[in-house]
Automatic annotation (TrEMBL):
Keywords: Cell outer membrane, Hydrolase, Ion transport, Iron, Iron transport, Membrane, Receptor, Signal, TonB box, Transmembrane, Transmembrane beta strand, Transport. Residues 342-759 form the TonB-dependent receptor-like beta-barrel domain. Transmembrane segments: none annotated. SUPFAM superfamilies: Carboxypeptidase regulatory domain-like, Porins. It is found in: Cell outer membrane. The lineage of its organism: Bacteria, Pseudomonadati, Bacteroidota, Flavobacteriia, Flavobacteriales. This is TonB-dependent receptor. GO terms for molecular function: hydrolase activity. It comes from Aquimarina hainanensis. It is a multi-pass membrane protein.
Length: 794
């Protein structure tokens, strides 16, 4: 070992004079062995490099002070502050194996790269390695792993509800914002993305309106995929499982011009059979031709392309385009079972008169430009999102199909979103003041599948269709700023504010206004056009106490909001055509720390949320629902996350959430369908729907080293406490537990894993009716899944 260190020292002394404008370093393991192909990246910069075969790297001399992050698969990630004036003989960096210490987690929760410990908010971070270990192919895997987070899917991934701390949504306008590589999924229809080549998933709990704006009232799910670097690498992966599950992924990342131009591309195909079998014995038509037909089959095609250009140290440009197409000719879109007792007794059955079809096409395109000044960085993020949808023979109280004005089942006019953010961030140059400020704007052409469809009316309109249309044209602009001031070495104050303005336009018809008979459109009444304007101010303040580098205590207040909107129906004059935004006040106290030579990490949070002016559908006239601001709610609880390495090779992860919720002054209005008398029901004191009182996750894995290869055995336990899916608290999902396991073999070139999820085949409700005034319906969660994964790397 002494000889190795001597050789490294001589190499550094020889090479330093050759790079007078650079900083040299070497990365080694704890035994002194050089680590090749380790990544050294400058935080909040596009600049970085990799080590050579001797573990040596060279970084250009950029600032008087900057931080770097050093990472290598199999070793713990480490951050380090570089002060060039204090470095005369290079930098020596030692990385420990992941089997001996916990990695240092770097996140972008405040739109700049920081360690998770120094960030004064509740955030869960899952590295790409952990995502693979959990076999996280979609957001359902986050249930329980993130404290007080649940994901409820309505048959397909692009119709779902994400809930954080009980804050959720009952429309297409999400309450939990989802970002994929900087692109905001403004509408729920843009969710349900495949998770592939993940760098990191961050889940920010609690309102994030100051930096993220509208619809981040419950929190933010921030997904970052892997980018190309100076090292050429590629892979091919095959996944096979029961229910004919197939998942094939290939990708390559490479420099086209070293240090200047980089390309990354990966593609994926997935397919699976649905677990539901159709039973027509209880249906109206009793079409025996589809008796026993599978329901829930899906295919997905996904591509992700990055092109990154670094013409120098002052400028960078990154272009990214993602596309995902989801197809099914045995669709579970909006399909439910009308009685939860029947569903639980027969969890693999569905009762349909027809088998539906759907196709969704999602495209996300972005261009990120950055200019690096001496004391600040200017960022521009331009994005375009397009969502196309078509469906037919969807049975949900009738037979529904999309309609393009000429053909039943044809694609709807696509949703389109253009957005632009320009941001200025200060650099960490030793100043006690750090800031982020910017402007954001978007335009959106949107529709809701629930109010854009053709439905058959065989009684009143034989051979014809009633057409419902709701076209939306939205515009929004915001200005925001956040700054932190280090009052002392240990005390930091953070404050921020955001102003959002939004203008919405809606054109819609009501029942019977538009008919389609044969090949003729009959317009009885023209579209009704309405406009509405909404604005909100979202402040934030936080105080942090940092007694040491590995510990932070903080207290914060944040205000969140969810945008208002326009009702897509002509409602009685006494009711508003528009509904106001929702607001929330979030109070939070947190503690984060690492102990015992980085072998234990703990994060604890307590919170109180006062949620005001909830938006919910009231029946304001016969067959006429309108969204109104119906009341308030309260949510309070605690969250705990902990990781530990008790002995070499053994890692434990625990997440615990406790959430006590209730509606306050929540008035539900209904019109009796027989007497037409208005009925009011006060739900004050009821628990929030889809808000389990407890969530628990425990993972244990042990890695056995075998001739420089690893054999890892992993087990997971998660428990979701009892909750109600409806606001009336009558449709109950009892406490349930799931067990997962994985056995993997990893080498430099080949990884093989066998896995099982929900091993004891627990059947439970994945989604239930949020309002049981006029009936109950449910979707069942998938049964046991088992399979194998093989991945070849080069």
């Amino acid at each position: 070992m002494k000889l190795k260190k001597a050789v490294i020292g001589i190499f550094l002394l020889v090479t330093i004079p050759m790079f007078s404008q650079s900083i040299n370093g070497v990365v080694t393991a704890t035994d002194g062995t050089p680590i090749p192909n380790a990544h050294i990246d400058i935080l909040n910069s596009d600049q970085g490099t990799i080590t050579n075969t001797k573990g040596v790297f060279v970084l250009p001399l950029r600032e008087k002070l900057f931080r770097i992050v050093i990472s290598k698969l199999g070793y713990t990630t480490r951050t380090m502050t570089i002060i060039p004036d204090q470095i005369s003989q290079g930098v020596e960096i030692v990385l420990e194996k992941t089997t001996t210490s916990l990695e240092e987690i770097v996140i972008t929760a405040q739109k700049r790269e920081q360690t998770i410990i120094e960030t004064p908010l509740a955030v869960s971070s899952l590295s790409g390695k952990k995502v693979n270990e959990m076999r996280a192919w979609d957001f359902t895997t986050l249930n329980g792993v993130v404290p007080n987070y649940t994901y409820h899917e309505l048959g397909v991934g692009f119709q779902q509800v994400q809930v954080i701390r009980g804050v959720q949504v009952f429309s297409e306008n999400p309450a939990v914002a989802t970002y994929i590589d900087g692109v905001n999924s403004i509408d729920i229809l843009a969710n349900g993305v495949q998770l592939s080549e993940i760098e990191r998933i961050e889940v920010l709990r609690g309102p994030q309106g100051t930096l993220f704006g509208r619809n981040a009232m419950g929190g933010v799910v921030n997904v970052l995929t892997k980018k190309p670097t100076n090292k050429t690498s590629g892979f091919a992966e095959v996944n096979l499982g029961n229910r004919n599950t197939q998942r094939y992924v290939v990708g390559i990342k490479t420099p086209i011009i070293k240090n200047t131009l980089f390309l990354g591309v990966d593609g994926m195909y997935t397919s699976k059979h649905g677990f539901l079998r159709n039973d027509t014995s209880q249906t109206l038509l009793q079409n025996t031709a589809i008796d026993g037909h599978r329901v829930g089959d899906e295919e997905s095609f996904y591509t992700n392309l990055f092109l990154k250009w670094l013409p120098g140290t002052k400028f960078s440009a990154t272009f990214n385009i993602k596309q995902q197409m989801d197809i099914s000719d045995a669709s579970a879109f909006f399909t439910t079972v009308s009685d939860e007792k029947i569903a639980l007794a027969n969890p693999d059955k569905i009762y349909l008169n027809r088998i539906g079809e759907h196709k969704r096409n999602l495209v996300n395109t972005s261009l990120a430009l950055k200019f690096y000044g001496s004391d600040f960085t200017v960022s521009s993020i331009s994005a375009y999102q397009r969502v196309g949808l078509e469906f037919k023979d969807i049975e949900s109280g009738g037979f529904y199909a999309s309609f393009d004005g000429k053909k039943i089942g044809a694609p709807l006019d696509p949703q389109q979103v253009f957005s632009q953010e320009i941001r200025i961030d200060s650099k960490e140059n030793g100043s006690p003041i750090q800031y982020t400020m910017g402007v954001y704007g978007f335009t959106q052409q949107a529709f809701s599948p629930a109010s854009n469809f053709a439905t058959e009316d065989p009684v009143n309109l034989p051979g014809g269709y009633i057409i419902m249309k709701n076209e939306q044209d939205n515009f929004g602009i915001a200005a925001f700023g956040q700054a932190s001031y280090s009052m002392t070495e240990k005390i930091k104050m953070t404050g921020g504010i955001r102003y959002d303005f939004e203008k919405r336009k809606s054109a819609y018809n009501t029942l019977g206004d538009l008919l389609f008979v044969g090949e003729t459109i009959i317009e009885n009444n023209p579209l009704v056009k309405k406009e509405g304007e909404f604005s909100a101010i979202s402040p934030k303040v936080a105080l942090s106490y940092i007694p040491g580098k590995e510990m932070t205590l903080y207290a914060s207040y944040t205000k969140g909001f969810r945008a208002g909107g326009i009702n897509g129906l002509n409602v009685p004059e006494i009711d508003k055509e528009t509904y106001d935004p929702e607001y929330s006040d979030n109070y939070e106290v947190g503690y984060k720390a690492r102990f015992v030579n980085k072998k234990i990490y703990v994060s604890a949070t307590s919170f109180l949320i006062n949620w005001k002016d909830l938006q919910f559908s009231n029946l304001v006239a016969p067959l006429t629902f309108a969204i109104e601001n119906v009341g308030d709610a309260r949510s309070m609880g605690i969250e705990l996350e902990a990781s530990a390495i008790p002995v070499k090779g053994w890692q434990l992860d625990v997440s615990l959430g406790y959430n006590d919720t209730e509606y306050q002054d929540f008035l539900l209005r209904r019109i009796d369908p027989v007497t037409f008398v208005e009925i009011e029901e006060q739900l004050e004191g009821n628990r929030l729907s889809n808000a389990p009182k407890t969530t628990l996750f425990i993972a244990s894995q042990y890695t056995f080293p075998i001739n420089r290869k690893n054999l890892t055995l992993r087990g997971e336990f998660r428990n979701i406490g009892t909750y109600y899916t409806d606001i009336q608290n009558t449709l109950e999902q009892e406490n349930y537990s799931l067990f997962n396991a994985r056995l993997s073999y990893e080498s430099n070139e080949l990884d093989i894993a066998v896995w099982g999820q929900n091993l004891f085949d627990k059947r439970y409700i994945a989604y239930g009716t949020p309002d049981t005034s006029f009936g109950r319906s449910t979707n069942m969660a998938a049964p046991r899944s088992i399979g194998i994964t093989c991945r070849y790397k080069f």
